[in-house]
Write a structure and sequence with these properties.
Chain lengths: 669, 162, 133
């Protein structure tokens, strides 16, 4: 089985290399057979990698400890369901996963590419296969999951306890898939450039896959935050850790991209800029994978020392330099079809949107990299952590929130100052009233007031448009309001899907502002029967059960929560100590309501039976987690294919009508 | 905010190790003694070096850490606004082409009007004068009498797209 | 067992790679007349879509009436011009429809043999014997 895995890995490498070379050579030399053969090789590579993946899974299930990777990341005690997680617990498996994910997404993208891309598709295939070949080569030569040990150990090392949480089943694969998925829109853009196309054929495919990559990253980031919140035991959700940042930055780039690609779709503008943007996003994604696989900066995510770093760095350099070289080569043909009509337009708003997003990315990059710079220039090393980002990125995020409210109110081309003012009236008023009301209720922190006001601003704007549209449709078609709204949504999926996503963003903002500015924390040691007061809760520690297991000792504590003198509920926070890893993993007990979270986690179990607890009150963080499904819903609505049918009969000869069923490409905002 | 000296990238608020707890205790003590935030930060920085601070001090060479991003973003914003302004000034509004309406265009205008619900709205090239109907829902003076389009969809193509 | 599967996959890979070379045929790529018609389709789509979005924004109160009227009229003219260009372009040459049918037949033969992804461009003159306007 290990041999099958290894052989299939090499087959896939051969196929992808052939496909890459064949696509480029075939298309430039006009050999259709070579192009077709290369395309099929790409599809087959996916199948072969699937077999390879299954081999590794089988090896885990069989606990075949002769294979080094299996021995390092599992043991006899491990329940089978953790096989999934163990698969990508280390570099070797992660790389195989990335390779398979890329092969699958590439195959899908190529298969479903719009039919107007015949010329550019071979170049796109070539780019995709080139990247795949790189990852497979690194996997095969430098981090082979199928390597065997010289002997068969009786038991494995076991799986890292931090990975045994439900969130770990989705967060890493989603993040890795998202990062590698950014290759797809990049490949479509590159393909178009290499084929010498001046126009916008790649925009539909670029938008589709850009959104898919974006959504995967967004989901991965939110899940990572959620996991950190529930498992890491300090009640926070974002570290500004260098590896986290490395995943955030490509996401920011992709957010910018999926917005400005709409301008290219609607108005043929920003052609050059979008190429630059997708190149940058792809580069950041490579950087993200580099930081994850062998980065030089210490982080919670460090997978241990790795020599993969320099290889990825090299590929990163190549992956940035060559696309930009191609871009400069094709620069002259990339003129935009139109020019900007006015500053008060959706186009201009998207430009500012891009600027803010890239600004945040730059600040984040700077913050990640500056400590290294300061280390090199002598003196002492500087740390850059949360306070830096709060002060520098905070205002940028708020500005972005403001723009999110104003942008949708701007039409394409131009608006008049008067019309904009009229459109801003209602949302602006609601925002001011909200902040006034909050101020009166005791909220005095300026950033919090602004944050909440902007959230109200955005939400009002969206609901007003929804209301107006629904009302108008109701009047003209007689549908009842819910149906009218659904029909409205169905007729404008990209736009309304986008609004749903914006609402999700507001929810995240709500959670961030609430928790960042209004949380309360208490670290306390309680003996059995003792209690402590926090806010309007009385927390009473009852006792702990100590449960030694095969690879860990579990401490399950019981805590009673009283409000207004009455017992509301009981919480059971847990802490487990893994002697092999010299690590403790906690499972916080969280009572979550839309208003606030009560968060209790044991930080130490003392020999006399008392427990050190960290107790947190996190207002509004519930909204951040709920935003996840809302975001996914919005994305699905936005991507749901919408045919723009132009059934415009024309006068024709011989009494026959000429209809033009146009099925290409989704509608856009 | 202070970083935990032995943990990879955690503040003392986040870290669970003993030294972090000790530092937290020390900070609490100092606060109760009346030290203000800057004094406490300075105290730790003196003993452990600047890297114990969670963010660079806003002084001396380290000011660069703050200034570069701030000015970078502001500069980019200014550049962006200038670019937008130059683009809008230079494009003497290149609007949608408004060609002359020649006679040859008339039958086509007719078809467009009938299919997209512009009939009788007093637009150039038309003969009658009536109100502009609601394009989105396809209602209007004549829209309800529209013959089926090839797709068999009774609604104007401007309305629901399935 | 594992080696058998590996051998099968290797054979399959070789086969898949070689196959297109053994079944030679010519292909139709690049701009044919049908591509011009198809492009105009997309332009028409774009105009109709622009109009729809304009209408939506007007309804939502983002555009004042005068700007709206101005732009919608301009789109209307643009749509008519495109329609004219499309129709008259296709009416050139008496044998045009015959040529079209031959091309369509060739393309569909091709589509049967090749990948799905090498789908020919949908010919836009899919002419249903339907409503006469």
């Amino acid at each position: 089985m290990a041999d099958l895995g290894a052989i299939t890995l090499w087959i896939a490498l051969a196929l992808s290399s052939y496909s890459a070379l064949g696509s480029f050579v075939g298309q430039t030399r006009g050999s259709v057979e070579l192009v077709i053969s290369s395309r099929r090789a790409a599809y087959l590579a996916m199948l072969v990698l699937f077999v390879s993946t299954l081999s590794l899974v089988t090896l885990f299930i069989n606990r075949d400890f002769e294979v080094a990777y299996v021995a390092h990341h599992s043991d006899l005690a491990m329940p089978d369901r953790f096989t999934w997680v163990a698969f990508y617990a280390g570099n070797e498996g992660s790389l195989l996963f990335i390779g398979f994910a890329l092969a699958a997404m590439a195959s899908l993208a190529i298969w479903r590419a719009p039919s107007n891309m015949l010329d550019t598709l071979p170049y796109t295939t070539g780019v995709l296969m080139l990247v795949l070949a790189f990852f497979l080569a690194v996997t095969g030569f430098m981090a082979n999951p199928f390597e065997k040990l010289p002997f068969v150990p009786p038991d494995g090392d076991g799986i890292n306890p931090l990975l045994t949480h439900f969130g770990m089943f989705i967060h890493p694969p989603m993040l890795m898939a998202g990062l590698i998925c950014s290759t797809v829109p990049f490949a479509f853009a590159m393909g178009s450039l290499l084929a010498g196309k001046t126009g916008d054929e790649w925009v539909d495919a670029g938008r589709l896959w850009g959104i898919i990559a974006w959504a995967l990253l967004a989901g991965g980031l939110l899940l990572g935050s959620w996991w950190a919140y529930t498992i890491l035991g300090w009640g926070g959700f974002w570290f500004w850790d260098p590896v986290e940042n490395a995943a955030l930055m490509p996401w920011l780039g992709l957010t910018a991209f999926i917005h400005s690609i709409m301008v290219q779709k609607r108005r043929g503008m920003f052609r050059m800029w979008n190429i630059v943007l997708i190149n940058v996003s792809f580069g950041l994604a490579l950087y993200g994978m580099f930081m994850n696989r062998g980065g030089p900066v210490p982080s919670v995510h460090s997978f241990g020392a790795s020599n993969l770093g320099w290889v990825f760095l090299l590929f990163l350099a190549v992956g940035v330099l060559i696309p930009f070289a191609v871009f400069f080569w094709r620069f002259p043909i990339l003129k935009s079809a139109q020019t900007l009509d006015s500053m008060l337009s959706r186009e201009a708003a998207f430009l500012v949107n891009n600027l803010l997003l890239l600004g945040i990315a730059f600040v984040t990059l700077w913050g990640s990299v500056y400590p290294l710079i300061s280390r090199l220039t002598g003196e002492d090393e500087i740390t850059i952590a949360r306070p830096f980002y709060d002060q520098v990125n905070g205002p940028l995020f708020l500005a972005l929130l403001l723009l999110m409210g104003i942008g949708p109110l701007l039409p394409w081309r131009r608006a008049t100052g008067a019309s904009l003012k009229r459109a801003l009236l209602a949302p602006g008023t609601v925002a001011l009233v909200t902040s006034a009301a909050l101020f009166v209720l005791g909220v005095h922190k300026p950033y919090a007031l602004i944050g909440f006001a902007l959230g109200a601003f955005v939400t009002t704007g969206i609901f007003i448009e929804w209301g107006r549209g629904t009302l108008s449709r109701h009047r003209s078609t007689g549908d009842i309001y819910p149906i009218a709204f659904l029909r409205l949504l169905g007729a404008n999926r990209p736009r309304y899907g986008g609004y749903i996503v914006h609402l999700a963003v507001v929810m995240v903002a709500l959670g961030v502002v609430g928790t960042s500015f209004f949380n309360e924390q208490m670290d306390v040691v309680l003996g059995p029967g003792e209690s402590v007061l926090i806010k309007d809760y009385e927390i009473r520690y009852v006792g702990t059960i100590e449960d030694p297991k095969s690879n860990r000792t579990e401490f399950r504590s019981t805590v009673e929560v009283y409000r207004n003198g009455r017992l509301s509920y009981t919480l059971e926070p847990q802490r487990a100590f893994y002697p092999d890893f010299n690590m403790a993993a906690t499972r916080a007990a969280i009572r979550s309501t839309p208003v606030e979270d009560l968060f209790v986690v044991p930080s130490e179990n003392l020999p006399d039976g008392s427990v050190g607890f960290r107790i947190l009150i996190n207002p509004l963080i519930w909204w951040m987690w709920v935003a996840g499904p809302v975001l996914i819903l919005g994305t699905l609505v936005s991507l749901w294919p919408q045919q723009v049918r132009t059934t415009v009969p024309a006068p024709s000869r011989a009494g026959r009508t000429l209809t033009t069923p146009g099925t290409r490409g989704p509608a856009t905002v | 905010m202070l970083m935990c000296p032995v943990c990879p990238a955690e503040t003392i608020g986040q870290a669970q190790v003993e030294i972090a707890r000790q530092m937290r205790r020390l900070v609490r003590e100092k606060l109760s003694q009346g030290d203000d935030r800057q004094e406490i930060l300075d105290f730790f920085a003196d003993r452990y070096g600047n890297d114990i601070l969670a963010a660079p001090p806003k002084s001396g060479a380290n000011l660069i850490a703050w200034l570069v991003p701030v000015f970078g973003v502001l500069g980019a914003l200014a550049a962006c606004l200038m670019v937008i302004r130059s683009m809008t000034r230079q494009g003497a509004r290149e609007g949608v082409e408004e060609g002359a309406i020649d006679d040859g265009l008339a039958p086509y205008l007719d078809i467009i009007d009938r299919n997209l619900g512009f009939e009788g709205s007093g637009l150039p090239g038309q003969t009658e004068n009536r109100e502009l109907p609601d394009i989105v829902s396809g209602t209007g003076p004549d829209a309800s009498n529209e013959p089926e389009s090839a797709s068999g969809d009774a609604e104007s193509p401007m309305q629901d797209v399935k | 067992m594992a080696f058998l599967l590996a051998a099968v996959l290797i054979a399959l890979s070789v086969g898949v790679v070689i196959y297109p070379f053994l079944k030679r045929r010519d292909s139709v790529t690049g701009d044919g007349p049908e591509d011009v018609a198809a492009t105009t389709d997309r332009d028409m789509e774009a105009i109709v879509e622009d109009m729809r979005i304009l209408r939506l924004d007007h309804q939502a109160g983002n555009i004042p009436d005068d700007l709206y009227q101005e732009q919608i009229r301009a789109y209307r003219l643009q749509a008519a011009s495109h329609l004219r260009q499309q129709t008259e372009g296709q009416l050139e040459g008496a044998d045009w429809e015959l040529e079209q049918e031959v091309l369509m037949a060739r393309l569909s033969l091709q589509a049967q043999d090749q990948d799905k992804s090498a789908e020919p461009v949908e010919p836009s003159t899919d002419i249903p014997e339907d409503t006469e306007q």
